[in-house]
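Q: Hi! First time doing this. I have a protein sequence and I read that you can turn it into a structure. Is that right? Here it is:
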Amino acid sequence: MNRRHFLGSATLALTGTLFSRNIFANDRLLNKIDIQFFSLPKMLEKDLPGTLAMLQKIGYKEVELYGPYPFSTAATKERWSAITPALGFKGSGYFGYTAAEMKSMLNDHGLTAPSMHTDLDTLQTNMDKIAEASHILGHEYVILPAIPEEKRKTLDDYKKMADAFNKIGESAKKEGVKFGYHNHGYGWKEVEGQIPIKLILDGTDPALVFLQMDLFWTVAAGANPVSLFQDYKGRYRLMHVKDMSKNARFSGDGGDAKQWIELFPLMTSAGSGVLDLKTILTKAKENGMEHFIVEQDVVADPEVSLRKSFDYLAAL
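A: Yes, that's right. Below is the predicted 3D structure, encoded as structure tokens:
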């Protein structure tokens, strides 16, 4: 083989290899996999930079923060302090650093933070401060993780919450961020001929209120994730990806901590349970889902579990 022929053949082979790899990369279902910080709070509290390095090594590209934060209301900080003894950790927000310092550390480890969770009080009173921090950290979505129990006792409460969400969404839009609601297991059982959560889904402005699905709690409530993506196409932008070791439902309406705790042992690494994650995630992406966020609320060894979830999702 002469030199010209050899170089031509080598170039063709290399081009074919690169082309094949590019096609393979484009065929991956999820190009970026996120992690919710609440999956490993004790590790973050003990060593934030070291934990970020671990997440980078596993392959995670994005993170989602949980509150409270320095700008959270006093009442929120008091409620958090009251439950931390039971949780076994105190760290949250920026774990003792400033927003700018957190941003710098994320940059150092190739991570971005497109979303954050914060409470209702702070969303209603401190949107300017939320937005200021969000612009520093690059948050696009500011998300309410739960509706306080006293504000979801009746159908009228849910209607009032829909109105409140529209106002929060409008406030967020003015500040250059997007407001979202993360569902739990409550609100899915029929009450007086109506599904309470539908009063929020149907009573909020799609341009102002986006949705984050918690897959585990949605299934535990007996709802169909794929139907929700299709019925509310384009509104579900983020998902907490979890798996379930066996099919299970709440013992009641999913409205209290006792029912949640009963199901915690059934949470497992993505791909280790019974949920058809490939189909669910594919349909989610087809209907506008942007961020797929691994979360496992109670796990003995976060590094092992979160690596398993990442490896499974990255291979889809």
